[in-house]
Structures are given as C-alpha cells and as structure tokens.
Amino acid sequence: TKKKRSNMSRWDSLNPKIKARIVKEAQDRAIRNKKRREPAAEKKRRLYSQYREMQQQTKREGRVMRDLHPNSKERTPLADIAPGDTRQGKVISLTRFGAYVDIGSEVDGLLHVSQISRDEFVSHPRAFMGPGDEVEVRVVRLNPEMKKLQLTMLPEEVLEEENVMKRFEESEDEDDRIQLDEVEVDDELWGEIRRVTDYGAYVELGSVVRGFLHFMDHPMFNEVPGSHPKEFMRMGDRVRVWVMDVDGTQKRIKLTANRPDGLPGPRREIRWI
C-alpha cells in the first residue's frame, strides 16, 4: 500500500505535458495493436480507402492550370489555324499513345508518340515531358468540323525527310498501304532503312507506319563491341526483317533482322543489297 501510494505521488508530480505525451503514446500503441488484430476484410477496405484518397490527392496536385479557360472566347478557332503553323503549347495530360497539348485553340492537340523524337525510342511520353511542361509544336493536320488537331515535335529536316506534312495531308481513306491489322507477328518483310538513331533504325515497309529495328535485334550487333548502330545500319539499305510485335494503340511495328527460331525452313541471315 505504501509502494502504491508512492507511485501515485510520482505520477501526480509529473509535468502535465509529459503526462499527456505518455497517455498519447499509450493510445497510439493500443491503436497499432488493434490494427494488427483487425479482420483481413476490414484491413483490405481500410487500405483501399487510403489508396483511393492518395489517388485523388495525386490527381488534384497534377491538375494543370491553363492560360485560358477551355470555353474562353479568346481561344483560336481551328479554321484560323493552318498545317505547318508553329505554336507554343502546354502539356495537359499524358496517355500511352501520346500527349494532349493546349496551344490556345478551341481543342487540345494530340501529340502522338511517333511525333515526339527520332533520336530516341519513345516508350511513353512521360520520358520526355510531363503535365504543365511548355513545348514547341507544329500543326500537321486539323479538321475544324470534327474538332481534331494533330501536332508534331519533329525537327524540320525530319519532317522533310519523312514527308510527314504531305503524308498527313493525304485522305484518311487512303488504303494503298499495308494496314496494321494486316500485319502479323513473324511476318517476313523487306524494307528500306530511312533513319538511324542511337537505338536503332526506322524501316519503310510500305505500311501505314514505319517499323522500328532495335540495334540489339540486328545480326551484326556485338560483332564490333561498342560500335554505333550507324556503323552497321545505313540509310538507304534494303533489309529483310520479321515482325516481332504490332501495337495498334501506339501504331508501332517492332522488327527483328534475326530470323525467328520457331519458323519452319532453313535459317538465313540478313543480306544487304
């Protein structure tokens, strides 16, 4: 009884702030222990609720402030914009197949992944830009009636070399080229190298998009360790390739110059013409 009286006297003598801290730590410890014992279903609901809150917070923080309100009368009508116009824009959002850019027009323009760079392979636009970034783009195609606007970031020499502007001026009903749904994995094709980058080459196949041949998928890769792709992949060379993958969403054809092992018949290496 004497010891208990002594302990009570010690507690009463503590500073109120210290007593409050001890009580708070005890409560927090009790809550942690309760969470450890909570049923799996309740824990799942709690974690999912926290995840949703984090998602909403990230979305709120990621909203881009536009220079003009989407419905502002100061926005330029598509009818007053012409293909070839160069504009400053702000990236509004990203998707797997490209980025939507506000250039001050009545609709946001689509900057497709294929129109971002030729020096590097663009697996996702986030590797080159993010929401809110300022970018310089050029108009390649627009349709005031359907409210469509397509943009490019490719430099002038690439646009001329690949005839991008003229290609976008062609009718959407043009069907003399091979469509993506007509290309299948393991198809054997002949093409011409039109551009070589640090990562590989773009090959003209006669399809609606050019195929990409990564330098590691070339039979001469590693014959000269450390060599640049331009040393064994040259513009104008005709190459025999096989389709590795077709991405209809991003409009891409991935190629290899090494004959797939699973195909029947004799194995033949690529020959340069």
Explain how this protein is built:
Helices cover 25% and strands 25% of the residues. The strands form 2 sheets. It has a 5-stranded mixed barrel with strand order 1-2-3-5-4. It has a 5-stranded mixed barrel with strand order 6-7-8-10-9. The longest helix has 22 residues. By secondary structure, the chain is of the alpha+beta class. It starts with a helix and ends in a 17-residue tail after the last strand. It has 5 helices and 10 strands, in the order αααβββββααβββββ. A hairpin with a 4-residue loop joins strand 9 and strand 10. The C terminus is likely disordered.
Note the topology:
Layout: H1 2-13, H2 16-37, H3 40-61, E1 86-95, E2 98-102, E3 109-112, E4 134-143, E5 148-152, H4 156-161, H5 164-169, E6 188-196, E7 200-204, E8 211-214, E9 238-247, E10 252-256
Parallel strand pairs: 3-5, 8-10
Antiparallel strand pairs: 1-2, 1-4, 2-3, 4-5, 6-7, 6-9, 7-8, 9-10
Strand percent estimate: 15-25%
Distance between the termini: 104 Å
Inertia-based shape: extended
- Tally the beta strands: 10
Biggest sheet record:
5 strands, mixed, barrel
Number of continuous helical runs: 5
The amount of helix comes to: 10-25%
| Uncertain spans | 170-174, 266-273
Q: How are strands sequenced across the largest beta sheet?
A: 1-2-3-5-4
H/E order of the elements? HHHEEEEEHHEEEEE
Mean pLDDT: 80
Find the structural class using helix and strand composition: alpha+beta
Radius of gyration: 30 Å
